[in-house]
Specification:
Blueprint (H helix, E strand, L loop, with lengths): L7 E5 L3 H12 L6 E5 L2 H9 L11 E4 L8 H10 L8 E5 L4 H9 L4 E4 L4 H14 L20
Parallel strand pairs: 1-2, 1-3, 3-4, 4-5
Helix pairs in contact: 2-3
């Protein structure tokens, strides 16, 4: 794992235990400088879209659970992909769902990876390395990116 970068992650996870485990695991990766956590889809959208938000810099990567109260992860992902400024924001799904239709839907919406909990730190480290090498992805079009996807075997 490389040197510590100024790499900011948004973790969208409603289960406090899962969020704690994910944050502890992510802190083991040297690439990450900060992890912001929100507990539902509405807060995630506020974090990303609210001009009055205290967030000065958007995250380099969003780790998104699908099963969120209120606004689910798919809707959050759709909003990100439909926004001109955010459509290139790298998103990784971290969920308990092994449902093949969820995997297919997430990949069609342009996620980098689809992880079934628990998180695979080696794969995530590879993703962080590749996104930091590409540069500031949130300003690039998703059409020009070669998104990597994992093969999904039930």
């Amino acid at each position: 794992m490389g040197m510590k970068n100024d790499y900011k992650i948004l973790l969208v996870e409603d289960d406090p235990d899962h969020a704690l485990i994910a944050k502890m695991a992510l802190k083991k990766l040297n690439q990450i400088s900060s992890i912001d956590h929100v507990a539902d889809g509405k807060k995630a959208l506020s974090y990303l879209f609210d001009p009055q938000s205290s967030v000065a810099v958007l995250p380099n990567l969003t780790i998104l659970d699908l099963n969120l109260p209120g606004i689910d992860g798919f809707e959050v992902l759709r909003e990100i992909r439909n926004d001109k400024k955010l459509k290139g924001l790298p998103v990784v799904i971290l969920t308990t769902s092994r449902n093949e239709s969820d995997v297919k839907k997430a990949l069609e919406l342009g996620v980098l990876e689809y992880f079934v909990k628990p998180i695979d730190l080696n794969r995530l480290s590879d993703i962080l390395d590749s996104t930091s090498t590409i540069g500031n992805l949130k300003n690039k079009s998703t059409d020009n990116l070669n998104w990597r996807t994992m093969s999904f075997i039930c």
